[in-house]
Specification:
Length: about 300
């Protein structure tokens, strides 16, 4: 990532920035996704860098490495973080911010407030697609210089497959999918682009899996493992949009689309358990109707 000004020039009086009317107005302005700036073409092949995985139908990817951007973000906040602290009175849903975790700074958006502890929030990481619980002491205001840089996480789903019974993906399927992609060099062939929902459907492959007969897709590997099945009828954009409306009495969801629940928006807004929280609940044998009451209320 290149910038039009030097690092020294862009590190300004941050306290003055956060107190300005323009900053206050922009602090909850939604940062655009790189999806809006990149032309995703059907049948094109692109490199993939995995972000958060919820299940094979809902995960987030990056289409380019962001190490240069992360170094710049780190340099800026190492110098300015003390003047960019977020107070409890600043907290609101949708506030753009930066999370400091395990020595790394991440762009984020506050999606939930802890009603029992005003010093705790849940944030969505804009460049990774994951949710994190955080203390306010680890949260900082996002400087205006980082607003114009699009969020790097892109919503993605494996194309042409569903869960075996069209129900929700099980924990063992998600674990196997993670095993297939962890620490791998990945490429994707784009099958469909859902512009309104900002989702790409992809055939995903590990470049080191070529056995001489070509690279098998991870989509087909999950089917071969009897963890998924091929489908001939693909979800439309309007059907993906319908997943968002679960909980509305007017919503009629086809049974063969249950594997698409919950929606990307529901996950990103912290309205369902995060990937880590979901795994913990399933390991504790918490029933799905307790985890996803909206869905089961809709079903029954």
């Amino acid at each position: 990532m290149s910038t039009n000004h030097s690092t020294e020039d862009s590190i300004t009086d941050s306290q003055e920035i956060t107190n300005s009317p323009d900053f206050q107005q922009r602090s909850t302005t939604k940062i655009k996704s790189i999806f809006d700036k990149w032309e995703f073409k059907v049948d094109s092949i692109i490199p993939i860098y995995m972000g958060n995985i919820y299940d094979p139908s809902k995960f987030w990817v990056r289409i380019a490495p962001i190490s240069v951007f992360e170094r710049y973000l780190t340099l800026f906040y190492e110098r300015n973080k003390m003047s960019l602290c977020v107070k409890s009175s600043d907290v609101c849903i949708g506030l753009n911010c930066v999370l400091f975790k395990n020595g790394v700074y991440y762009r984020a958006r506050i999606v939930r407030k802890d009603i029992q502890n005003q010093n705790k929030v849940k944030v969505f990481l804009l460049d990774y697609g994951s949710l994190n619980n955080a203390l306010l002491s680890d949260i900082f205001h996002l400087d205006q210089s980082f607003y114009e840089i699009p969020a790097f996480a892109v919503r993605a789903m494996l194309t042409n497959i569903s869960s075996l019974d069209h129900g929700m993906w099980t924990a063992n399927v998600v674990d196997k999918f993670m095993e297939y992609v962890k620490n791998k060099i990945l490429i994707a062939k784009i099958a469909r682009v859902h512009k309104q929902q900002k989702v790409i459907e992809i055939h995903l492959s590990d470049v080191d899996s070529d056995d001489g007969d070509g690279m098998p897709t991870i989509n087909s590997c999950l089917v071969k493992d009897r963890l998924a099945k091929f489908i001939s009828k693909h979800p439309s954009g309007s059907q993906l949009q319908q997943i968002m409306k679960i909980g509305d009495r007017e919503c009629i969801l086809l049974k063969e689309l249950y594997y698409l629940y919950p929606s990307f928006e529901t996950i990103e807004n912290g309205l369902v358990p995060s990937t880590v929280e979901l795994k913990e609940k399933l390991q504790q044998y918490v029933p799905l109707d307790v985890i996803y009451p909206d869905l089961y209320e809709h079903l029954f």
